[in-house]
């Protein structure tokens, strides 16, 4: 079965998928796999498969923003993927979670438009508990700060004239903000598969991103490397359970 948007044959996929926004990050992740091969590069969706410590894994980029990412998640699940782990970047809400830290997302605030068109207002966007545990354990085996908690998913990246809701979510205890996790968690719940996410902090959410956003620092590169290793090790842990 050809997945029409990813342009991948479902039979070529794997039960585990690591998903990330950036097609070049997908390629970097694929370099950690044994026997990696690129299946397709269609729109923003770049798909690789290979094995990690003997476990078959797909790596797929989903682009920026929930609507486009949702298409990717839906097609992967239709293609037989059972566990999806997002490896992303995020802005921090707290000096306790400085740039270079990792955050394992236990649940996501649905501050985007996509999931409102899928489920009622009160439906939660929650990670799978086993995936969270495996990610948090695996991250704890690497060097550096790791936290777990609630993240916020927004549609807008650069601010307009409306206030971003950062202050209230920070006060409520959220740790970081990004743009796709709520879509991933809601779609995984709807389709009965497991999902989790880990993000590398690249700055502070309440900064003026038009002025200061720079995800291309050494600290962020090290954190991304660490979260990639974490996701791969988490998959091995989940597979051995
Ligand atoms: O690094 P990725 O996975 O793309 O994640 C974050 O970075 C992008 C914004 O620059 C958004 O996709 C956001 O969710
Ligand atoms: O959505 C995002 C992603 C990375 N960094 C941010 O500040 N926001």
Automatic annotation (TrEMBL):
Nucleoside phosphorylase domain: which residues?
15-231
A Pfam family cross-referenced in the UniProt record is PNP_UDP_1
The reaction(s) catalysed by this protein are: uridine + phosphate = alpha-D-ribose 1-phosphate + uracil
Kindly report, in one word, the top-level EC class recorded for this enzyme: transferase
Its Enzyme Commission number(s) read: 2.4.2.3
PANTHER family given in the database record: FI09636P-RELATED, URIDINE PHOSPHORYLASE
Protein name, entry field:
Uridine phosphorylase
Species the sequence originates in = Paenibacillus aestuarii
Q: What is the lineage of its organism?
A: Bacteria, Bacillati, Bacillota, Bacilli, Bacillales
């Amino acid at each position: 079965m050809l997945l029409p948007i990813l342009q991948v044959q479902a039979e070529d996929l794997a039960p585990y998928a690591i998903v990330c926004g950036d097609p070049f990050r997908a390629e970097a992740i694929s370099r950690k796999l044994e026997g990696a091969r690129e299946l397709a590069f269609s729109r923003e969706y770049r798909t690789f498969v290979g094995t990690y410590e003997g476990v078959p894994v797909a790596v797929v980029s989903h682009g920026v923003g929930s609507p486009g990412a949702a298409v990717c998640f839906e097609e992967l699940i239709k293609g037989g993927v059972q566990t999806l782990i997002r490896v992303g970047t995020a802005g921090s809400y707290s000096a306790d979670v400085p740039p270079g830290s990792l955050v394992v997302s236990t649940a996501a605030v649905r501050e985007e438009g996509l999931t409102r068109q899928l489920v009622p207002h009160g439906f939660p966007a929650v990670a799978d508990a086993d995936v969270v545990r495996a990610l948090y354990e695996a991250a704890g085996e690497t060097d550096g700060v790791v936290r777990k908690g609630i993240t916020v998913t927004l549609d807008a990246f650069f601010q307009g004239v409306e206030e971003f809701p950062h202050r209230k979510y920070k006060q409520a205890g959220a740790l970081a903000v990004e743009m796709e996790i709520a879509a991933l968690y809601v779609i995984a719940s709807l389709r009965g598969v497991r999902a989790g996410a880990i993000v590398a902090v690249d700055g502070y959410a309440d900064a003026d991103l038009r002025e200061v956003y720079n995800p291309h620092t050494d600290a962020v590169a090290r954190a991304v490397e660490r979260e990639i290793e974490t996701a791969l090790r988490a998959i091995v842990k989940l597979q051995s359970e």
